[in-house]
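Cross-posted from the bioinformatics board.
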Amino acid sequence: MIQLNVNGQSKAVDVDPATPILWVVRENLEMTGTKFGCGIAQCGACTVHLDGKPIRSCSTPISAADGKNITTIEGIASEDGTLHRVQQAWIEAQVPQCGYCQSGQIMSATALLKENPNPTDAQIDAAMAGNVCRCGMYGRIRQAIKAAAGIGQPAEQETVA
Amino acid sequence: MSKSETATDSPGKKGKWTRRAFIGAGVVAGSALVVGVAVRQGNPIDRLSPLLTDGKNEQLLNAWVKVDTDNIVTAVIPHVEMGQGVYTALAQMLADEMDADWSKVRILEAPADMQYVSDSIARDFLAPNLEVPAIFEPTVSGGILELAQAMGLQFTGGSYSVRATGQRAMRTAGAAAREMLVAAAASEWQVPASEITTADSMIIHAKSGKSEPFAKFALAAAEQSLPAKPTLKSPDKYKIMGQPKARHDIPEKVDGTAIFGIDAKVPGMKYAAVKAAPVIGATVTSIDATTARTMPGVLQILNMGDFVAVVADGYWQAQQALNSIDAQYSKTEGDGLDLDAIFARYATSLDEAGEDGGDMETEAGDVGKAFAGAATKVEAEYKVPFLAHATMEPMNCTAWVRDGKCDVWSGHQAPVNARQAAADAAGLPFEDVTYHNAYLGGGFGRRSDSDAVIMATRIAKATGYPVKMIWSREEDTAQDHYRPSATSRFRGGLDKDGKLVSWDNIHTHLFDPKDAPTIPYYNIASHKIRKVDVPMHLRFGPWRSVDHSQHGFFIESFVDEMADAAGKDGYAFRRELLAGSPRHLKVLDTAAKMSGWGSALPEKHGRGIAFVPSFGSIVAQVAEVDMTGAKPKVTKVYVAADPGFVVNPDGFTAQMESAIVYGLTAALYGEITLKDGAVQQSNFHDYPMLRIDEMPAVEVALINGDHKHLGGGGEPGLPPIAPAVTNAIFAATGKRIRELPVAKHDFA
C-alpha cells in the first residue's frame, strides 16, 4: 500500500510501486486533468507537483511519492473555487486552443512563479521549454505568466499542499 | 451529475447529451417551469427534438437553436472543437442574427446524427455560388442534404466551419428564429411584425411600450412556419460578429475538467496497448507472449492480424506487457524502401513525364515558346519530407460492444464517419452504434481518419469488455497518416525587363485541394502546371493546410528565385505579379509595411516575404531570421490576413499564431524517414517540436476585404511561413534552401 496526499486528501493505493504517478492519478484516482503525451518526459503534458516541485509524472514511479504530497491541476484553485491567478491569467490571455497540454503548462508556470515571482523572459523560456504546445500558444503563455506575476503577491501560495 | 455534462446550468461549459453523455451523467437540470411542446408534425427536426430538449423547460425552434424558460439561447454546433474556437465563432454568428443577449448564449455540440451532417459543406463543394439557402425547407435542400449524408459529412476540417456552416447555416438559423419569435409576438400583441424590434434576447414593441423576453414566445414561435429565406444583417448592423468574444471552451481547459477522448470513463473499463506491423500493409505472422502472459494485470493478448493488442487492468500494465512481446511480420512490397528510394521514384516519374507528360492541371499561353524566347531562364527542384501530425493527445478510442449494441467514445473530426466505421467494425447497423464525441487534443487533420476507432471497436468486440485503447507516442509517430513527401520542378523565364513571362511546374501528385499548385492570382502570361502519380505504401492524410503546405513552399521559393534572377526585391517583384488585384496587393503591402520592409538589418540577419491565398483567405507573411548562431533563429513574423470578414478577431489571430508555429516546426525540424519500409522516428526526442524558447514574436493585421465571401481561419496561416523563413535565410546568407527541413542544412 502506498500512502499519498493528493490535493490535500489522504489516499492509499495498492499498485505496483513502479507504476508511473501519471497512471495512478488518471486511472486509480480517476483524476483525468493530468495528461499523457509522450511517456518519456519529453513534452510536459503530465506535469504535477511532488512536494511543491514540478515533475513529469509519466516517468516518475509512484514509489517516489510514498508519504508525499502530489498536487495536480484539479488542486490549485482555492477551496472556494477561486481560480489560481495563473489560471485566471490563462483565461484572460485566451491561452488554450485544443487545451490538451494546458494542465501541464499551468503546473509548470505555477511552480516557476513560486520559485521566482518575477521571472525574466529567459527564465520563463528556461522553465517552460519542457512543455510542448502543438497549437503553438507560446506567445500567449509568456504573456499570461507575466500577467500572473504582475498581480503582485510576492510569493506563490499553493492552495493545497 | 458532473458539471461537464449539462448545457443550461453551467455557463461557459460545453453541453453534452444526457442520453449520450459519458457514463455517470444525470439529467439536465432546468428551471421548474415546463414549456415542453414538440415541434410541429412533419418538420424534419421532429425526430431530433427528444435528443435536444429535456422535455421540461425547453422549446426547440429549429435544429441549430433552442430557447429555454430562463431566456437562455442555446446554439447547437454541428462541428467539433479542437482549439480553433469554432463553438464560439459559430455561436456568435447565430446569436448576432437572432439579436440574442451574448451573456445568455450557451453552446451544445450536435450529436453524431445524420441530420447534422454538414449540408453546407457539401453545398460548398457542389455549388459554391449559391445564395444563402433556405436550409430549413427540406424540399429545397433535401437533395443536397441527402448527398451530404451519403458523403458522411459532419466534418470539421478544410477551414470550412465559419465560411460554410457559419455563413450558410448558423446565420440563417439565427435569423429564422428571430423572425419566428417576432411573428409569434405580432400575433399575440395584434400588431404588425414590422413594428417589432429585437435586442438582447428581448422582443420590443416601442409604440405600445411592450417588451418581453424571447422565452415568452418560444412556444408560440415554434408553431410559426419556418421562413424560407430569412433576412440576414448587413455588416453595419453586426453587434456580436466582428467582436473578440472570449472562447466558451477555455474555462474548462484551465482547471482540468475538459473531457478529451482519452478521458472517457466507463464502469468496468479495461485498457489496451497496441502495436501495429511496423511496415504498413504487413501482417503479424506470429507472436511470442511467454513473458507477457505472466505479467501483472494482463487479461488478454490478441493477435489481430494487422496489430497486436494487450488488454490489462491498467494502461501501463498493458504497455509493459506489450513491450515484452516478440512479434514476426509478413514481407510486403514496402520492405526495403528508404527515403532515398522514394525520392528516386519521384525523380524517375518526373523524368519520364519530361516536358510534356504527366496530367495537366492548368495551362495558359504557350509555355514552350515563352520559355524558349526568355531572356533569362531559371530551373530549380524542391523537396519536402513526410510529416507526422504529432497531436498532443495520442490516438485513442474507448469502445464497448455488447448485446447487439456498440458505444464508442473518442474525439473525431468527422463523428458520423467514426460512427459508421465503428458500426462496420462491430458488424452492427449504424443505428445500433452510439458515438460520444469529446474534445480533440489536437486534430490538424489526423483525427479525420477512423483507424483508431476501428481498432478499438475490434478489440472491444473480441473481448466483450469496455476497452480504452491508447496508442503510445511511439505508435502515434510510426503509424500516422502522413503529410506526403513531394518533389516539385520548375522552369521559369524572364523577359529582358525582368518580367516573369513563363512558368512551367511539374510535381509529384499530392492530395487536396486541387487548387494548391495553381497561381491564378499572379499575372504570368504563359504557364503550365502538371502532376505525376507515384504509388506509395505509406498512408497519407490531410495535414494542416494539406497540399498548400508543400506548394506554398515550392511556389513562393521559386518566385523568390525568379525575383533574384531579375535583380529585383522579392516584395517589389510580387507587387508586379499582383498588379490589377487590389485586394491581394493590400494584404502584401500591409505585411511589408508592418515589417519595415527595406529598412536596414544587422549583419547576418535577413527578411523574407511569402504570399499564399488558401481556403478562401489571403495571407502574406514576412519573417526575420538571425543567422549569427549555429542554427537559424526566427525572431519575428509579421502577418497580414484577409479572410473576407473576421468573425472573432482574437480567435482568428490565435489561429494565425498557431499555424505559424505548426508550420515553423515542420519547416525547421519536421521529417519522417524510412528504413526497410518502416518509419524511423518514435517520439519527441527524434521528431522534435518547436518550444517556447524558439518562439518568434508574431504580429498580426486583419483585413475585412469582402464580407460576402468568407475564408477559413485554421489553415491559411501555415503555407507562407516556410518560404518566408527560407527566403529570409537566403537574404541573410545567400544560401537557397530547396529541401526541407532547414535542420538538414549546415550554416557553419
